[in-house]
């Protein structure tokens, strides 16, 4: 087990702060929603609860990666992360449909007592603060080194903060306005805005997960870097048999198969494959690169992916 660096700990603390703030607001939020039935708060609760699962999984994954505890999974835990992300995305879209159906049902929210009105406004305000506070630590963590996990958490937190502004306004109108028709409209608008954010975030999570789950090849810019690295050493091997690439979570995987004359020594072949691996890693620092050497077969066609 390796010791995490200071930058690693900075990323972990940033996500941990976001998780703790979300946990602190979840239970009182759920109790208030159950009592007053605010649609805007219900949308916020469903979205926040589902994304809290993603945040917790991201923190556990990040800690495991930083401490080298993923050795049982030779290709990393990227697919597990993406499967969870896609599942949560589908749940977000389903929850958004539920909110829309409730909003279009014409429900008139009950008039709240001053105590419950103050509780509702206070909670949504605190939730807005809880969504804003982690932004600065997460932003600093993204600057401490490339991490798709941290960057995705920053984007999700920013989206939640923007959505929370609308929820605060709508809940304030719902809780404080004596006009019940205006309160109904505000509650419905808050719910629909929350549902809209849920659909956008859920669809994005599914869209980002599918390529990894289907083992899609790396994007063209990274493919060009691999090609350039192969071109730099094309005189050192006899034949390019194939190139296969995919991404597993945050890690690009590159598998290169090249053929050598059987008369060449193992030391010579090993020096070439190590040099090729270093060249690709220099072009794509975060990549997991494997170079496979096979005997030259004149009848074998070259292939690439």
UniProtKB/TrEMBL annotation:
It is a multi-pass membrane protein. Keywords: Membrane, Transmembrane, Transmembrane helix, Transport. InterPro entries: Cation_efflux_CTD (IPR027470), Cation_efflux_CTD_sf (IPR036837), Cation_efflux_TM (IPR058533), Cation_efflux_TMD_sf (IPR027469), CDF_Transporter (IPR050291). Coiled coil: none annotated. GO terms for cellular component: membrane. Residues 231-291 form the Cation efflux protein cytoplasmic domain. GO terms for molecular function: monoatomic cation transmembrane transporter activity. SUPFAM superfamilies: Cation efflux protein cytoplasmic domain-like, Cation efflux protein transmembrane domain-like. It is found in: Membrane. It comes from the Bacteria. The chain crosses the membrane at residues 14-36, 42-62, 83-104, 116-138, 188-207. Residues 15-214 form the Cation efflux protein transmembrane domain. Belongs to the cation diffusion facilitator (CDF) transporter (TC 2.A.4) family. This is Cation diffusion facilitator family transporter. It comes from Xanthobacter tagetidis. The lineage of its organism: Bacteria, Pseudomonadati, Pseudomonadota, Alphaproteobacteria, Hyphomicrobiales.
């Amino acid at each position: 087990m390796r010791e995490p660096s200071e930058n690693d700990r900075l990323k972990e603390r940033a996500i941990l702060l976001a998780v703790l703030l979300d946990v602190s607001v979840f239970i009182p939020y759920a109790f208030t929603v159950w009592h007053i039935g605010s649609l805007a708060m219900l949308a916020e609760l469903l979205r926040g609860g589902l994304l809290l699962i993603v945040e917790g999984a991201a923190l556990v994954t990040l800690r495991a990666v930083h401490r080298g505890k993923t050795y049982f999974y030779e290709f990393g835990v990227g697919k597990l992360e993406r499967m969870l992300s896609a599942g949560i995305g589908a749940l977000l879209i389903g929850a958004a449909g539920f909110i829309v159906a409730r909003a279009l049902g014409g429900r008139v929210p009950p008039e709240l007592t001053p105590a419950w009105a103050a509780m509702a406004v206070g909670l949504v305000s605190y939730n807005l603060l809880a969504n804003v506070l982690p932004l600065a630590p997460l932003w600093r963590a993204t600057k401490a080194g490339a991490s798709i996990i941290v960057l995705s958490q920053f984007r999700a937190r920013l989206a939640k903060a923007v959505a929370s502004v609308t929820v605060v306004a709508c809940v304030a109108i719902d809780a404080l306005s004596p006009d019940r028709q205006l309160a109904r409209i505000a509650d419905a608008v808050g719910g629909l805005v929350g549902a809209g954010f849920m659909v956008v975030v859920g669809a994005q999570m599914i869209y980002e997960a599918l390529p990894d789950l289907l083992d899609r090849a790396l994007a063209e810019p990274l493919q060009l870097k691999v090609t350039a690295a192969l071109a730099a050493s094309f005189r050192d091997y006899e034949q390019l048999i194939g190139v296969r690439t995919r991404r597993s979570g945050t890690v690009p995987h590159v598998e290169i198969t090249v053929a050598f004359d059987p008369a060449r020594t193992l030391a010579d072949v090993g020096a070439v494959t190590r040099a090729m691996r270093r060249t690709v890693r220099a072009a794509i620092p975060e990549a997991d690169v494997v170079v496979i050497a096979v005997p030259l077969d004149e009848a074998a066609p070259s292939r690439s992916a």
